[in-house]
Amino acid sequence: MITEWDINVGWFDRLEKEYGLFRDYAPKIRCAVAAIGNNPDLYGKMQTAWLDLSETPAENAAKIAVPETADPRIAPWIRLILLLPFITPMMNRYRDHGYSEEEIRVVFHEFYDCIARTAERTGTAGLTDMYFDWVVLFIREFFFRVLDFRFELAKYRGNAVYFRSKTNGGDPSYNVLASSGLWHRDGMALGSALFEEAEGAFHASLTESLSSWSGNSVESGLVRPGKTTLRKAEWEKALGYGDPVLKIHIDPGADITAGHVAQAAGEAVRIAKERFGHISGILCESWLLDPVYREVLGDDSRIAKFGEQFIRFPQLSNGLEIMNFVFEAELEELPHLPADTRLTRALKELYLAGGRTHAFEGMYAPGHPV
User: Fold this and answer.
1) In a shared domain, residues 133 and 255
2) What are the two backbone dihedrals, phi and then psi, of residue 232, each rounded to the nearest 5 degrees?
3) How far apart, in whole angstroms, are the C-alpha atoms of residue 208 and residue 232?
4) Distant-in-sequence, close-in-space partners of 4: CB < 8 Å, separation ≥ 6
5) Taking the CB of residue 223, how many other CB atoms lie within 10 A of it?
6) Contact 337, 326 (CB under 8 A)
7) 3-state secondary structure of 107
8) If residue 292 lies in a helix (H) or strand (E), which one and from where to where?
9) Does residue 337 lie within any of the structural domains?
10) Which of 14, 140, 158, 357 has a CA that sits 20 to 30 A from residue 296's CA?
11) Strand 282-286 vs strand 244-250: parallel, antiparallel, or unpaired?
């Protein structure tokens, strides 16, 4: 538990000596820390932002207002410096859950990687807003790596409830009902790119009685106005709001074939149960889950097949996720960007024609999509 803010050069030197997180970037970060110490007004604003971040739930942490400065020594690093006091307490929490020092080192190497990716993308080392939002998770949630994937222990905060059929030894089937949210008449989250028109929109809800659940049905990943009732004698809740879940994050170029994902998922569940107890399921939130990829990439697409390992549910999406994760550029740059792979060619053609892809969530249930 962090109880005070006291960032100074000596403190940073001790942090870097102990953990070696920043290496060749350390001198510039050290300079920024010193400059903040010599700016009382900015130092005070950093204290306030740190207190806000300390008291904010993890799912809202990325919304914290980070102080701004025109000082070129500080500006690229101010987001990172706001997070530095959280590193040691979070590492101690990892140790309390049985992580080895090598596992902790691998987890926190993400800080260095995000600084490097920021430098590659912008020409200046530091943290962009996008990478700040990402590394905030590493000082608020638990992560571990299995094969090509990072797994994050989190609480489910979505608008769906996933159900599993009760069986007598056979493979279960799955269902999903929308429990809340405002939905476009076509079944996407209202306000998503291309789905802003409110005419025909509807609210989803879920009710529970002693014998059943009733909520808006979900078909092929789209929310429908009609209601579906699931009897408790035949179904049980697999994942709902607030339940512990493993979120899967995919490395660029990862092997996402079914067997490889299944191997990683099985090992991740074993590790999570050993260290944290009950896990309700594995959840993916990604542009990779959009059902459109079978249409634009073909039946043999690895991405399409990956998405079909999940029970999908739409998220509010601005349709720009692929600009961050595939093209790493702004949308207005797209006409001039190279498209030298099957994926980039298909996406560029789709977007220049006015189409969009969207982020979906999905519970991992290979062989049982709905």
Assistant:
1) no
2) -65, -25
3) 10
4) none
5) 27
6) no
7) helix
8) helix 292-297
9) yes
10) 158
11) parallel
Residue 103 and residue 106: Cα distance in Å, rounded?
5
Tokens linked to 340: 């030298």
Distance of alpha carbon 244 from alpha carbon 36, whole angstroms: 39
Residues of the chain with pLDDT under 70: 1-5, 58-59, 61-62, 168-169, 367-370
136 and 13 within one domain:
yes
pTM attached to this predicted model: 0.88
Q: How many structural domains are present in the chain?
A: 2
Phi, psi (5° rounding) for residue 72?
Answer: -65, -20
1 occurs within a structural domain? no
- Range(s) of the domain holding residue 320: 249-263+283-364
Please tell me the distance from the alpha carbon of residue 303 to that of residue 59, in angstroms, as a whole number: 27
Looking at residue 1, its pLDDT comes to 40
Which DSSP helix (H) or strand (E) runs through 101? helix 101-122
Check: CB of residue 227 under 8 Å from CB of residue 216: yes
User: Looking at residue 337, what is its pLDDT?
Assistant: 93
Residues 6 or more apart in contact with residue 231 via CB below 8 angstroms: 211, 212
In a domain, 174, yes or no: no
Q: What b/e readout covers 130-159, taking b as 16+ CB neighbours within 10 angstroms?
A: ebbebbbbbbbbbbbbbebbbbbbbebebb
CATH number at residue 357: 3.40.630.120
CA contacts within 13 A on the Cβ side of 316? 9
Name the burial class of residue 180, with classes exposed (0-12), middle (13-18) and buried (19+) by CB atoms within 10 angstroms of its CB.
middle
Q: Nearest Cα to 364, choosing from 290, 285, 282?
A: 282
